[in-house]
Amino acid sequence: MKKAVVLLSGGLDSYVCAGLAREQGYEVVALTVDYGQRHRVELEAAKTIAARLAHRHVVLPLDLRAFGGSALTADVAVPKDGVGEGIPVTYVPARNTIFLSLALGLAEASGARDLFVGVNALDYSGYPDCRPEFVRAFESLANLATKAGVEGEGFTIHAPLQDMTKADIAREAARLGLDPAVSHSCYDPGPDGGACGECDACRLRAKGFEDAGLPDPTRYTAP
């Protein structure tokens, strides 16, 4: 069976991404990065998801709090006043570039030539490392910077959610038979792990289920 490395955060997008990789016949090697994120409950969600979908799960510690520069890795408040314009403070500097580089190393070492990442349309305007141009550019880099690429065993970066809305992703989770209740999206969960219901990630998730006409199993602190 062909292998694919899937970046698995524990959120709904990466969950669906892993489900799609498995549906396409890949043996899933899941990579979760423990980067010191504020929403550490997502790491437990990633472990639950990997137990259901992955052949192998690597949880890699890489504490980006040493860099800071984001509400997810520094003492900066997570915005709770609705989805705004521009690049939000929840942007982690170069995160997808760092994560895809790690996934590329794992893929080359494990014999996989396919990488899956759950970037999607709603993040284009806010996060520069979610754009289609970025994905294409990283694929070119992967094939220039690796032994496998130079020797003709090219890598392919799959972004199957690229053109989906959050409603599309919720519908895809239902089609794949995935349980969204085990995923976690909130950027600022409470002490008990409950979703805040007010951060951008919560708002977009809730609206996605609503627009899809599907029940949202998430336990929100605020409506």
UniProtKB/TrEMBL annotation:
Pathway: Purine metabolism; 7-cyano-7-deazaguanine biosynthesis. Gene3D superfamilies: HUPs. Keywords: ATP-binding, Ligase, Metal-binding, Nucleotide-binding, Queuosine biosynthesis, Zinc. Zn(2+) binds at residues 186, 196, 199, 202. Binds 1 zinc ion per subunit. It catalyses: 7-carboxy-7-carbaguanine + NH4(+) + 2 ATP = 7-cyano-7-carbaguanine + 2 AMP + 2 diphosphate + 2 H(+). Its cofactor is Zn(2+). Its EC number is 6.3.4.20. Transmembrane segments: none annotated. The keyword Lipoprotein does not apply. It holds the Pfam family QueC. It comes from the Bacteria. The keyword Nucleus does not apply. InterPro entries: QueC, Rossmann-like_a/b/a_fold. NCBIfam families: 7-cyano-7-deazaguanine synthase QueC. Belongs to the QueC family. HAMAP family: QueC. Catalyzes the ATP-dependent conversion of 7-carboxy-7-deazaguanine (CDG) to 7-cyano-7-deazaguanine (preQ(0)). This is 7-cyano-7-deazaguanine synthase. The gene is queC.
